[in-house]
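Per your request, structure below.
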């Protein structure tokens, strides 16, 4: 195992575990709020003297603002569910990364399983901002006064990763052609 590959493998594994734990925390927050919403509501109420709403920064970088001063249980449930899904998507990206490193330790990275995992990473990266977009659209339709920003960086990055997977697929074809000649 090469030094840089080993470091990348370890970092990807640790990152995957961290995001699985974050997903579990989001799921637990969802469950607690669903079971005892009054307890969560008492934790998050904004003072009556405040002129602004509750501002929440999502994992993907978007900022949501609840215009009302009161804690909205439905909104919080939607946000925590979306947060859990986002954490799972990122954990799955890190899983694919360490699997690619493991597959490439003793051989070329130009293998069909590596191409498939790179392609999966592309779709997972695209899916994350789409989850955020869907949640923001639902929030905007249900709760007036909710503002949001769509971050297209993830979509662009996912498209680039999908293009990269095509380059790796071509590399696999070239290696197969070379082996056929020998």
């Amino acid at each position: 195992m090469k030094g840089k590959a080993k470091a990348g493998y370890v970092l990807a594994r640790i990152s995957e575990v961290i995001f699985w734990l974050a997903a579990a925390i989001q799921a637990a927050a969802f469950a607690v709020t669903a079971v005892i919403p009054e307890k969560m509501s008492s934790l998050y109420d904004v003072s009556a003297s405040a002129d602004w709403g509750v501002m929440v920064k999502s994992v993907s970088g978007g900022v949501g603002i609840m215009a009302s001063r009161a804690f909205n249980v439905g909104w919080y449930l939607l946000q925590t569910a979306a947060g859990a899904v986002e954490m799972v998507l990122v954990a799955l990206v890190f899983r694919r990364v360490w699997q690619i490193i493991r597959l490439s330790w003793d051989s070329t990275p130009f293998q069909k399983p590596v191409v498939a995992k790179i392609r999966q990473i592309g779709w997972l990266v695209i899916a994350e901002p789409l989850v955020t977009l869907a949640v923001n659209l639902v929030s905007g339709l249900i709760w007036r006064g909710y503002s949001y920003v769509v971050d297209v960086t993830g979509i662009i990055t996912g498209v680039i990763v999908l293009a990269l997977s095509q380059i790796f697929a071509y590399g696999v074809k070239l290696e197969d052609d070379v082996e056929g000649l020998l």
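The helical segments are 3-35, 37-44, 73-103, 112-142, 153-181.

Regards,
D.
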